[in-house]
Write a structure and sequence with these properties.
Elements (H helix, E strand, L loop, with lengths): L23 H4 L13 E4 L6 E3 L3 H14 L8 H11 L1 H11 L7 E3 L1 H10 L3 E4 L4 H10 L6 E5 L12 H4 L10 E5 L2 H9 L3 E4 L5
Parallel strand pairs: 1-4, 1-6, 4-5, 6-7
Antiparallel strand pairs: 2-3
Length: 208
């Protein structure tokens, strides 16, 4: 089963597995003891967590694969890592990804009501670590009146290694205070990222 709702550039290799949906609370021994009151810092994925983006997947893959062929970037890499590596060669590639994500300035998306209501209820600044372009995220949050809730956005245009590598979290660390941190995402890759960055984690569908 391949989900069109998860970050669009990962859809070509992600295979859903039932056990992957088990709460990370189980893995870190928080079952029965976890409370939101203990969390000092909230971090979120974006596509599939805060909003579901509607993207032309075929256009994206064709563009990325053409660039990788021209620059001899391995086809074995995840689509996210390919985009990151192309961006290191030229920011023009990232600009095109932004245009694809936002349908050339008019992003098509559906907000995930549970997450949006949860963010509003927190009355705290949040952080976003995502494989989407940071401008895409900022455009949508601005349109929805949520941009002031977001302290920092780390998108694919800022990172050197795709999740589940913990490197994206390093871009957040200078901005945060010590304390319990919770990452919320919708994919197994998000859970693995949280584990590698030593963050607590719950899946999007476990928000209460």
């Amino acid at each position: 089963y391949i989900s069109h709702k998860w970050p669009w550039w990962e859809n070509d290799f992600y295979e859903w597995k039932p056990f992957a949906r088990k709460s990370f609370r189980y893995f870190i021994g928080l079952a029965g003891n976890f409370t939101y009151n203990s969390v000092k810092l909230y971090l979120f994925d974006f596509d599939g967590t805060i909003a579901d983006l509607s993207i032309d997947w075929d256009e994206c893959r064709a563009f990325v694969n053409k660039g990788c062929k021209e620059h001899q970037i391995s086809n074995e890499l995840s689509l996210s890592q390919k985009i990151i590596d192309l961006g290191k060669i030229s920011h023009d590639y990232l600009d095109v990804i932004y245009q694809i994500e936002t349908t050339k300035g008019a992003p098509k998306y559906t907000l995930i009501a549970t997450t949006i209501n949860f963010i509003k209820s927190l009355n705290k600044e949040i952080y976003i670590i995502s494989h989407n372009h940071s401008k895409t995220i900022a455009d949508i949050l601005t349109k929805e009146g949520l941009i002031n809730s977001c302290q920092k956005i780390i998108g694919i245009n800022y990172i050197n290694f795709a999740k589940p590598n913990s490197e994206p979290y390093q871009h957040i660390q200078p901005y945060i205070k010590l304390g319990s941190s919770l990452y919320i995402g919708d994919r197994e890759t998000d859970r693995q990222f949280a584990e590698s960055a030593n963050l607590d984690f719950i899946f999007t569908n476990e928000i209460i």
